[in-house]
Amino acid sequence: MSDELVTLTIDDKEVQVAPGTLIVDAAAAVNVEIPIFCSHPKLDPVACCRMCLVEVEGPRGPMLQTACSVPVREGMVVHTDTEQVQATQEANLAFILLNHPLDCPICDKGGECPLQDQTMRFGPGISQLVEPKRHKQKDYHISDTIVLDQERCIICWRCIRYLEEWEDKPQLALFKRGGATLIDIQPGQPVDAKTGGNIIDICPVGALTSKVARFGFRPWQVERTPSIDPHFSTGDNIRIDTRTYAIRRIVGRENMGVNDQWIADKTRFAWAWVNSDERLTTPLVRKDGELQPATWSEALQAVTDGLKRVKERQGADAVGGIGSAKLSNEANYLLQRFMRQIVGTNNVDHRDGGDVAALSTGIPSLAAVMQPQYGPPPQYDVIMLVGVDPSEEAPILDLHIKRAVRRSGTTLVIAHPRHIELTRYPGSYLGYRPGSEATLLNGLARMALAVKGEENQTVSQLTDDATDERLLNLCGVDPEAVEGAARLLVEAKNPLILYGPMAAQGATGEQVRNGLTNLAMVLDCYENLGYLGLNANSQGCRDVGVLPDALPGHAPLDDEAARTLLAELWGGELPTAPGKTYRQMLDAAGDDIGALLVMGADPAGERPEWAANLAQLDFLAVQELFLTDTARLADVVLPAVSWAEGDGTFTNCERRIQRAPKAVSNPASKAAQDWMILDHIAAHMGMQWPYASAQGVLEEITTAIPAYAGLDWTALGDQGVQWNAETVRPRPAYRRCRQDDLPAAGEGELALVTGTVAYDGGTLFRLTQAMRDMIHAAAVTLNPDDAAQAGVKDNDAVLVRSAHGELRLRAAVSEEIEPGTAWIPESLPGAPVGALLNGREQEFVTITPQ
Amino acid sequence: MVLTEAIRAEIQKWIDLYPLGRGRSAILPALYIIQREFGYCRVEAQNELAEMLDLEPAEVGGVVDFYHMLHTEPKGEYHVEVCTNVPCMLRGAGQCMDHFEEQLDIHHGQTTEDDRFSLDHMECLGSCGTAPMVSVTERETGKIRYFEELHSGEDVKAALEVIKTGNAFDVLERWTPDGDPQRTGKAAGPYRHGGMETRYLTARVNEPDSHAIDTYMADGGYETARRALNEMQPQDVLEQVKASGIRGRGGAGFPTGVKWGFLPEGSFPRYLVVNADESEPGTFKDRMIMEYDPHQLIEGIILSSYAIKANRAFIYIRGEYYFGFTRLVEAVKEAQAKGFLGENIFGTDYDLKLVVHRGAGAYECGEETALLSSLEGYRGHPRMKPPFPAVEGLYAKPTIVNNVESISNVIQVMRHGVEWYRGFGTEKSPGMRIFCLSGNVKRPGLYELPHATPLRELIYEYGGGPQHEDAPIKAVVPGGLSMKLLTVEQLDTPLDYESVAEAGSALGSAGVIVIDEGASMVDVALRTISFYREESCGKCTPCREGTGWLENILLRIQAGEGRQRDLPLLEHVASFVTGKSFCPFGDAAVWGLQSNLTKFRGEFIELIDATNPTGATPNLPIRPIYRPDVGSPSNVANNALEPTGDSPLNRDHVVETVE
Q1: pTM for the complete prediction?
Q2: What is the spatial distance between Cα B358 and Cα B25, in angstroms, rounded to a whole number?
Q3: CB under 8 Å, gap of 24 or more: what pairs does A96-100 form?
């Protein structure tokens, strides 16, 4: 296509636009509004509502054409305001309104409704209908969260097209025909696409409304705060609408570098926890064995006393701090400053922190994976996913990947112990045995080298363990499939490799990261290797140094420059000995670890064993929103506020630092922001920190982390700023990647596969009433063959036992589970899979019917 | 699992008929199989089919709901559908329906208590020359047979007797009371036809076994294709067709050769799709060709496919033409056995695969892009043009869509030569035409005549003049129900594209419907718009909303609540459907009404004056619902909302209550 602009005339105004631009967009460029309903800038044109008919001059006089579907031509002359066009607009609106119920007074869309606005601007002003209106279903639930009013619907197909063009799940369709046409689901098959709620945002009338938000707001009464999603690591941009100290709804906000304008349903609907009655509103201090309400000064004093006591008795390294990738940079930064500066230990970490061999640089860029409706294609022709399931773990990334596959021909190579949803696309699937990642990656590197026909002594030596025989027996993967995957990767122009925490944790995590690096280097795409953390601030938590072996800015503990910088900034000396990781601290709790300060984490709920350990602690302080299992064990509980109730920044998986300003507050609560709580504890311990606000903390972060230099609250704007990966990317080097043989499965034993699901039993999801039925059941899912072997059927009660513990669950049977494995996600309601785990790469379980 | 292995295997056979990866095309055949097995399209079966075709269940559900012939609830053992569209209406379809209702003791829309019979209205079934008629579907087998010329209660009784024997579906060819005095279910043979002395398109239909390949070959059949494939280049065939000036017989009259010329060079594969979705009320010519001379069509397909270098062709035949479908399927088998279809046909290196695909009851699928949507396994919605099918058609590949009769004309050109062909008709409307004559004439039927035969000659000489001596002809629809009405003053119009256009209408599909003084033009207008309301695909606003509104107004006028100002309102609404809708359906929907209102306005005025002399506006209650919980009762009494007497409120904003 030529890049030369096309010149045309719209209402006597000359306009120059890129070739391929639609008339409606060209008109917008010269401030000419053409009314539309079915047209949407993020969807393919369908030209069915006929609202945008304009006159285009042609050889046979002016012709009415739909501005939403006709691209501009050189010399085109368009009129949008002639008598004919106006009469057509009036008549068409009369058609649209003919059977519309006009129940605007109780319609959520009222006040921000394109149908209202256009009736005002372009409508006929009077109805000539004398007949009764047509009736359809008004309170019709197409999912647990979305309500359809078929009478309000004007059949613009936007919802259908969104589900088809973006989600690739056309779960809504037109049913019936003619005047009876309606949007519907197949009976008994509700919409379950993970981002299905976006159809509410794009509905041009009030036909689709949110079950959790409807009748709870008037658009003109709410206060709108641009923010970001607190659930997923992509940092999807949202807007929080609030009124009278409560969140009223959350909608998507456009950021073409992150989420286009789409957000996940969990983001949109699961916010009831913010205004929940279960929230902690006052500090609690344990007195006479019971947690009892206390004043802030009592509580802070108790924390000070507890931490000092243990430090004095057992030394600084008996105290530990646990941060959270769900909390802001500011909170996490201060936690590690507190531990390092005031306590004097490197015992500071978070879940999936030091226990996972991550990459300091996250993933290269979301924009490079995106295929917007109008915009450049994705940069990757092959995307490899290792132990990561975007459909459950990052729904918006999932959306981008699907779009890349379907619109741009990107091919997927998926290595995952489970047949994840994205395996439905053509490409390569390697269903490896959990714990065998290192060998599989060596196999891929070895075969990639072979496919390329290159000699590389180093790589050959490093990967000589990954024989065909070992791939088959250890990884459980057909060597030919590995070769096929390697071929796809080698033949790719620009492959992207993403891995998640599941693939690189525990003792072999380092080996897996090395294996991934080696593979990326063989494929000449070292910069395209990415680590996808799973929480809203997984990246930021690492950036600010909530790691036992790294200072802020990913500096090693012995990095002199960093130490000097921080020593100057904070004053005093920094501890030198590496700290304990999250798991190590919890394993040692009550033993080498005598006191813990836990901020926004619930290890007691994760593993029963850790709950027992925490109960043995000399002192436990917890900063929390809710009285979690961990908080119940605490000596002091400090009530914190959520991401929506205080200012903070979060860094997403592609290193984009984004603002989450305060959107709402609860005047009846004494809860405080995490950074402020830490600031006060510091003060009680005799250290006056200089922060007046979260912005002040951010200012210090930008000094402490060179990559963040130059940023401040204002500079971040509403779209965030990415920091430059090159500042911290390690130099590429081939490294050793080896693993021992895994124990073979015994009779009736299945390898346990665990991981994250979007709809888990966690507090942040569970408290949204409407979504309760969507929570992943407390179940173990088995391959049909294994289920038959174990003598269990779907929904049978079973006892799942490992060498380490047992769980009572329901059985589920699915082809998506590889033979020889059992799938139990984390955070199932009342069933911590942690009860079966003991930190090994591979756990075997047996299934017994009950 | 409700789909057994046997059913799945049968569905899989259909899937295999379409190009690899296009299994969705088999959705209608698969749903027919499901309907045959379960009596209707059970949701569980739909969902399992969705899984087989790798679709979401809603995609299958949406398709089922679009097509008239697919049911989501069981019908009776025999589903009787009475065509009540205009051509049948003019010849007594209303009485025919009454007879059925009386004899089955049910209202239309109902099923008899013993589950034997369901009775429904039906839109045009392509049997206008043999009206009134019904189509009957046997639930257990899915077979459909037409029972035609049911003029009296006796005839209806006879038809029901035959059906009740249980073996009425051993034969699928049409049945008439006169053709089967013994009531054994015997077939009636081809319906009335005639025309010029030597006929070409309908030359063989009277011969015994006219549908058999031997009959066709005895008349020189397949020789033209053999010669062309062996001796001519595709381009030469295309040039001849272009030179012949054949114009499309489906309705738009676009020159066939010119359409072929739009194919982008070097872009393959290409497809030929034969539009056999003959659904325009008043049109029943393609049915004759497919039922009684299918090889003529197949030879035409071979020639045309060769000319456009397509190796796959499809015949999209409307679902109601079950008999035609079986005849085509047999004929394809015969042709394959002779080596005229398949690989290396006629000993050349040219391959052609032909699939006969049944629609499932949707007038809109006669529109070429909607037909392609349907053939791909979607709801029959039209698609945006450009891209035109010749550039991006079936499966987004270059595709030519031609009508059955157009394809049959290709043989005539290739067999007899361009000069010979152009000897018929006029310069711009060359060749012969099968005129479909229906309505109030003595001898309705098919008449093969050259273009430009005067309308009067067709009606009087061939059709025998007005049906009833006491009811002179009042109006004529010259080209299928979509086209504008001609008055009796315009009977001398020659039936060629230009002349009919000059007379203010269009030759369309050459379905000539004659209306006499006995018919009410308001009835004609209402039945016409009801048809379009029923068949609107629902994609675009003006057509979806406008046709329903127009019908409602006409229904109200007929019910005695019309106002004189409804006439300009009708015109206003119609004027914003035509030219504003997505596809030509919108134009087709209102042209008849527009011309009716212009030419026969007096009848409307008279009816309104007679039934609603004061011009009172109907009294409808104003009851919008302002409660979020629409289902639950209001705290205040509802009695204030009862419609009582003349409302002081502005009636232009009335809304009816929800029950």
Answers
A1: 0.95
A2: 11
A3: A96/A37, A96/A49, A96/A51, A96/A154, A96/B541, A96/B545, A97/A123, A97/A127, A98/A127, A98/A129, A98/A133, A98/B545, A98/B549, A99/A133, A99/A134, A99/A151, A99/A179, A99/B545, A100/A151, A100/A152, A100/A154, A100/A205
Per-residue confidence at A579, pLDDT binned at 50, 70, 90?
A: very high
If you search the block for the tokens 């050769």, which residue do you land on?
A: B257
Domain A749-849 has CATH 1.10.3720.10: no
**Chain B residue at shortest CA distance from A147:** B628
Nearest Cα neighbor of A638 from A673, A662, A689, A666 is A673
CB atoms within 10 A of CB B255: 18
**pLDDT tens sequence across A586-604:** 999 999 999 999 999 999 9
Q: What is the ipTM of this complex?
A: 0.93
Residues of A in Cβ contact (< 8 Å) with B51 = none
Q: Which of A342-346, B412-416, B560-564 has the lowest mean pLDDT?
A: B560-564
Report the amino acid identity of residue A189.
Answer: Q
One fold for both A6-97 and A749-849? Answer: no
Residue B357 has a CB neighbour count (10 Å cut-off) of 23
Q: How far apart are CA A791 and CA A785, in angstroms?
A: 10
How, if at all, do strands A495-499 and A529-531 pair? parallel
CATH 3.10.20.740 fits A6-97, yes or no: yes
Q: What's the pLDDT score for residue B624?
A: 56
Cβ of A187 under 8 Å from any chain B Cβ? yes
The full length of chain B comes to: 659
SS (H, E, C) B182-195: CCCCCCCCCCCEEE
> What is the spatial order of strands in the sheet that A77-79 belongs to?
A13-17, A6-10, A77-79, A53-58, A61-66
Contacts of B624 in chain A (CB under 8 A): 101-103
User: pLDDT of A228-258, one tens digit each?
Assistant: 999 999 999 999 999 999 999 999 999 999 9
Query: A212: buried, middle or exposed (CB in 10 Å: 19+, 13-18, 0-12)?
Result: buried
Span B508-566, pLDDT tens digits: 999 999 999 999 999 999 999 999 999 999 999 999 999 999 999 999 999 888 999 99
- Pairwise CB contact (< 8 Å): B546 & A53: no
Residue ranges of the domains in chain A?
Answer: 6-97, 134-274, 299-358+537-727, 382-522, 749-849
Provide the CATH number for the domain formed by A382-522 in this structure: 3.40.228.10
Q: Say how many Å lie between the first and final Cα of chain B, rounded.
A: 38
Tokens 């200072």 identify what position? A551
**Integer Cα distance of B331 and A332 in angstroms:** 78
Test the A interface: residue of B545, B549, B623 with most A CBs within 10 Å: B545
B374 min Cα distance to partner chain A (Å): 14
Q: What span, in angstroms and rounded, lies between the C-alpha atoms of B383 and A670? A: 61
Which residues of chain B does A187 touch, with a Cβ-Cβ cutoff of 8 Å? 43, 61
Q: Which two tokens stand for residue A796?
A: 């049978």
Which residues does A674 contact at the CB level (< 8 Å), separation at least 6?
A327, A328, A330, A331, A334, A335, A599, A600, A623, A640, A641
How far A218 CA sits from the closest chain B CA (Å)? 14
Angle between helices B294-308 and B223-231 (to 10 degrees): 10
Chain A residue nearest residue B539, CA to CA:
A48
Quick one: which H or E segment has residue A85? Answer: helix A83-98
CATH 3.40.190.10 assigned to A134-274: no
CATH 3.30.43.10 fits A299-358+537-727, yes or no: no
Is residue A762 within 8 Å of residue A625, measured between CB atoms? no
> What is the tally of helices (H) and strands (E) in chain B?
24, 14
Q: Which residue of A has its CA nearest to B536?
A: A178
Q: Are A262 and A252 in contact (CB under 8 A)?
A: yes
